[in-house]
Amino acid sequence: MFELMDEWGPEKVVTVNHQRSGMQGVLVIDNTARGPGKGGTRMRADLTVQEVARLARVMTWKWAAVDLYQGGAKAGIRFDPASPRKEEALRAFARMLRNEVPSEYVFGLDMGLAEQDAAILCDELGDRGAATGTPAALGGVAYDALGVTGHGVAEAVDAATTHCELDDRRVVIQGFGAVGHATARRLDELGYRVVAVSTAAGAVHAPDGLDVAELLALREEHGDALVDHASGTRLEAGQELMLETGVLVPAAQQGVLHAGNADDVRARLVVEGANLPTDEAARQQLAARGVTVVPDFIANAGGIIAAAFGMRDRYSPFGVEVEQIIPTVTERMRANTRTVLETAERSDTLPHAAAGALARERVREAMRLRGQLPPT
Ligand SMILES: NC(=O)c1ccc[n+]([C@@H]2O[C@H](COP(=O)([O-])OP(=O)(O)OC[C@H]3O[C@@H](n4cnc5c(N)ncnc54)[C@H](O)[C@@H]3O)[C@@H](O)[C@H]2O)c1
């Protein structure tokens, strides 16, 4: 486990082994220089300590990049989330981490965990603030239903088009799930023309603009098959990435833009709604052709801004103050997008590198002020 450690963290790794249920788990507290550790809790049968450590580090950079005062952490439970003994595993995990939770880490939702699991974790520790992501009936917030991440992606699009002085308000969105549909909804409100959307079932294209209200209603009714019912030209999934447009928002899967297809992208601006939709080679090729890419951990940070409200209000008798979330996401996403694009221009680097450097600088400064850096 020592090979996971470097100059940034992790500060603490706790592993637990519950023989009765076969549950094994790990908590990785990566770096708390800017605030207490916060990041989701995942459950997967093949979970590894390395995976949790990597995700905890990602959280360190994400919190710092959006300039919120939380540290990076993540917890993982090696157990089948479909098992009828899930609750037993969750309760054992919570009990075995009672020294760390909630003083050093607060549970949250990630792969394999749902709102009710967050409620179980709180119940086991007898502490309402032991987890965020609890059901609305317990004072929590349904982030996906609110569409905060997609709302934030749309605000990032708008801030970036302003920064790049891009007049072309056509947008193509890959993926019409939790992120994609909320991005479309907000961009429509902001006066953009959504010319194509896709799901795993295929894509639909209308150069003069799709009817977003119709798409949202069709999603409710048909899910991914909405593309078979929407008015517009039907395309194969993937073709939408190469359409003529001002803005492209990949909001489905990772690795969709790579060395092999980046030169065929006709958008002027790519805003990453999904995690890791471009690789380094694609970003270099796009930059060489003057295409700006807004990094995922800036553009899709709406959810973590909302999670910060969950953290702040988790003991509040008023519940999470939902009405503050959307205006804050709007304001933060615009400011962060501007800051990163301006920093990238000033330092003549790509936005991904500029955002990473900014996050590292903030964490290092916090470590310096706390006297955590080694003597020079
Ligand atoms: N939900 C969030 O709050 C959140 C926050 C940050 C990042 N993300 C990232 O955003 C991405 C999407 O997440 P989501 O929550 O919207 O997922 P989701 O499962 O709700 O939706 C995924 C959408 O992508 C579509 N899709 C899958 N494969 C496709 C393909 N090959 N071509 C076109 N469309 C395809 C699906 O049909 C679906 O419409 C993921 O990378 C996720 O990690 C999500």
What does this protein look like?
The protein has two domains: 2-58 and 75-140, Rossmann fold; 144-376, 3-Layer(aba) Sandwich (Rossmann fold). The strands form two sheets. A seven-stranded mixed sheet has the order 10-9-8-7-11-12-13, sandwiched between helices. Strands 1, 2, 3, 4, 5 and 6 form a six-stranded mixed sheet that branches. By secondary structure, it is an alpha/beta fold. 39% of the residues lie in helices and 16% in strands. Bound molecules: nicotinamide-adenine-dinucleotide. Residues 140-371 form the Glutamate/phenylalanine/leucine/valine/L-tryptophan dehydrogenase C-terminal domain. Substrate binds at residues 38, 62.
- Kindly estimate the percentage of residues that lie in beta strands according to DSSP: 15-25%
Let me know the number of strands: 13
Provide the CATH superfamily of the largest domain.
NAD(P)-binding Rossmann-like Domain
Q: Over the alpha carbons, how many angstroms does the gyration radius reach?
A: 21 Å
Major sheet description: 7 strands, mixed
CATH topology of the largest domain: Rossmann fold
| Low-confidence runs | none
Task: Label the structural class.
Answer: alpha/beta
Keywords: NAD, Nucleotide-binding, Oxidoreductase
Family: Belongs to the Glu/Leu/Phe/Val dehydrogenases family.
Protein name: Glutamate dehydrogenase
Domain Glutamate/phenylalanine/leucine/valine/L-tryptophan dehydrogenase C-terminal: 140-371
